[in-house]
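We modelled the chain as a single entity of 327 amino acids. Its sequence is:
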Amino acid sequence: MPTVHKFTISNDSKETVLAAMRQHLPEKPSWSAVRKILRGRLVAIGGVLCVDEARRLGNGEIVTISDRPIPPPPTDKDVAVCHVDNEVVIVEKPAGMVTLRRKSDLCWSWARKNQQPTLDECVPRLIGKHAAKKHNSEKIHQRMPRLLSVHRIDRDSSGLLVFARTEAAQTRIIHQFAQHDAVRKYLALIPGTVAEQTITSQFIRDRGDGLRGSTIDTSIGEQAITHFRMLRTIGDYSELECRLETGRTNQIRIQLAEFGHPICGDIKYRGAFEQPPVIDKSTIHRMALHAAELKFEHPTTNKRMHFETRWPPDMLRFLHRLQAEAT
């Protein structure tokens, strides 16, 4: 994302993004001018497109003004529902969509939420539309399907995710994840090559620069274990299979970055603490991390549920271009 201007909020006054832009942009633009910039999809906060005029900023947040429009936020049409029954729902999430709406934002109006919908909002609508079509009705007169969170996928990642529909199902699936009985495999694209290996880290919330990361002190933090296997090389890059044994926040991203091979397109984790960031030369349009395989036992029938998906079309196009350039 080419940058025209960037600034960091240095107080906690919670001013709106429009007010901050008027204050920090060198030309001191008018309200109409900053509103035009925002509506033109040129503004990102923390690397994420912002289209909400009422978005309030906190201390340390970074606002970036781009010189070209950022891709629009994903909507219902970008979400694929792979399986639905009375206990579980399996979906494929697009990159750029948050899994769950923050509790502090639940009071927002429908119009404001719909500017950048979340996965837990899109999926019930899709299930409802499918039910209406199945019953040959324009509207199903019932409450929207209830979804309960089991796990999450990073906003900038894509791929498979499971929701539970009852508290009992939620508890049983979460238990499988905790006991490492479920299988979760990701695809990742990195610079360089990595030998097949298992990386074990001790994660803490702040490694010293405000980011999650590893510590050598095993008496604190949480253990993170990932099994890595190289699938192929594409010029100066490698496609990896990453199998989670534990499911810590940003686990694969952090471990690969600290190992010196940050995921292409990851703007947050670019290297180890107090080391120069690894420059991303891939020119990729999004973070190259995709949840490609999911296995677990159905919480009621005990049937083994197994779902696989390959890279989405936008990533396949990029990989094909990368392959062509390498030959």
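As a brief sanity check on the tokenised model: Helices lie at 17-24, 31-39, 110-113, 119-134, 167-178, 251-258, 313-326. The mean pLDDT is 92.
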